[in-house]
Amino acid sequence: MAEVELRRVSKAYKDTTAVDDLSLGIKDREFVALLGPSGCGKTTTLRMLAGFIRPDSGQILVDGKDITDVPPERRPTAMVFQSYALWPHMTVADNIAFGLRLRRLPKAEVDERTTRMLTVVGLPGVTKRYPSQLSGGQQQRVALARALVLGPKILLLDEPLSNLDAKLRVRMRDEIRRIQQELQITTVYVTHDQEEALTMADRIAVMNKGVLQQVGDALDIYDRPATAFVADFIGSSNLLSGTLSVAGGSAVARIGDARVPVEADGLADGALVTVSARPEDMEVLRVPVPDGFRLEDTRLVNFGAYKRLLGRHPVLGQLEARVPKSFRLGEEPVFVRFTRARAFPSADGDRS
User: Fold this and answer.
1) How far is CA 286 from CA 213, 316, 325, 332, in A?
2) pTM
3) pLDDT at position 122, please?
4) Is 205 left (phi over 0), alpha (psi -120 to 50) or beta?
5) Are the C-beta atoms of residues 32 and 204 closer than 8 Å to each other?
6) Long-range contacts, 116-123 (Cβ 8 Å, 24+)
7) pLDDT tens digit string along 251-276?
């Protein structure tokens, strides 16, 4: 298939920088998700890859060849849009075959490729239906087949599941991953849904305000976030602001008169930091311990397989811990202890 490389790519609209000096390599046959909140630059990046938008600076390469100025129709890419963009007056077969007919391929080849691609996406026998006669999931598969039938080296998907209900999204993300694995096609997938990215992609590129924050697999992104933004955006985190104290190879964050042991990753003594601790890294206790914090105004939120304990500490503020579904609140006090917390540089800088 194809390797893709973005070298220091930037794009601005008037006074807004959509993508800021982004460099990213995508391996042959790899599935990479561009993940981030609305306005982070992920769709702009995808459209630059497709050729619909030209970067202000930087290069886009496929297999080492610069395609920055190559028009969309001459790129080895195919794109599936959020809206599917199916022709309502055409049958399923005609929608899929449209691009092949533009290439003036023989009718027998067009029919064979169309039929084969419908089988790949799991929709044999719907060739004569119209888009209005299909479910949302079926329309999404037709849009995917229309992109893949052209034989692209690179598949680009722009939030293709956002119009589907929750259960269908789960089923369709499994289908997309299956098809990508079957065809062994290099894929770039844009989403704001972290669950989609974590479950589908080989690697995830997290973006915020046009800047690439971190690239890694699901475990890297979740367990070893590189920035406070990634720690906050991926999963749930308790976020606290404090000052770092480093002594004797250990580090704690000073938050008022509270002290929280942290992994500081080489940050300097006295640095202003943001501390992140996952709810599952908060141990819940019924008795006081030296490094524990008593919670007030506690309540439970039931997630079915587990519960979240919410409570307030006078200094640390609102805290959240994951507890078993059997956990119950009683008259006795509740304490939490940080079993793992990470410190990141605060946006406010450094005191030292």
Assistant:
1) 39, 19, 16, 7
2) 0.89
3) 87
4) beta
5) yes
6) 117/145, 117/148, 117/149, 118/92, 118/93, 118/145, 120/145, 120/148, 120/179, 120/182, 120/183, 121/145, 121/148, 121/175, 121/179, 122/175, 123/92
7) 999 999 999 999 998 899 999 999 99
